[in-house]
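User: I'm preparing a small set of examples for a lab meeting where we compare how different chains pack in three dimensions. I only have the primary sequence for this one, and I'd like the structure in token form so I can line it up with the others. Please keep the answer compact; I'll paste it straight into my notes.
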Amino acid sequence: MSRATRPPDLAWTDADCPVARTLDLVGDRWSLLVVRDAMDGARSFTEFQRRTGIARNILSDRLRKLTAHGLLAQRAAPSGRRQEYVLTDAGRDLFPVILTLRQWGERHAFAPGETHSTLVDQHGTPVPEFAPTGADGTVLDADTTRVQKTG
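Assistant: Understood. Below is the structure token output for the 151-residue chain.
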């Protein structure tokens, strides 16, 4: 999706807010789980369905919307017999969002000592805690930032 255009089937909840616009595009649980699984290597309808347990009709709808909104693209599978879904640059740009959700869940959605999956880098090392920082290197949070309207 172009940065300047609105998908034809989408009315913005809050046209001036980037958070609201993002949620309009990927704010339901199934969309983010499809993006998560695409980041983890899922490519086919069957893989997405098996990994998420999502109903086929809902998965079809989410894949269609994520493709229409430019987060996924379809291409011929290596076999040439089927289409597969791959992340676009816009879809890959959601990595920090998925990472932040994952790390929040690790801290707040599990009891102490409860087992859960862990995200690791290419060497098998757990990904360090993600913390946004300002231009001067200080950690940013809700107390050290504010929304400023533009133009």
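A couple of notes for your slides: The mean pLDDT is 92. Helices lie at 18-26, 29-39, 45-52, 56-68, 89-92, 95-108.

User: Perfect, thanks.
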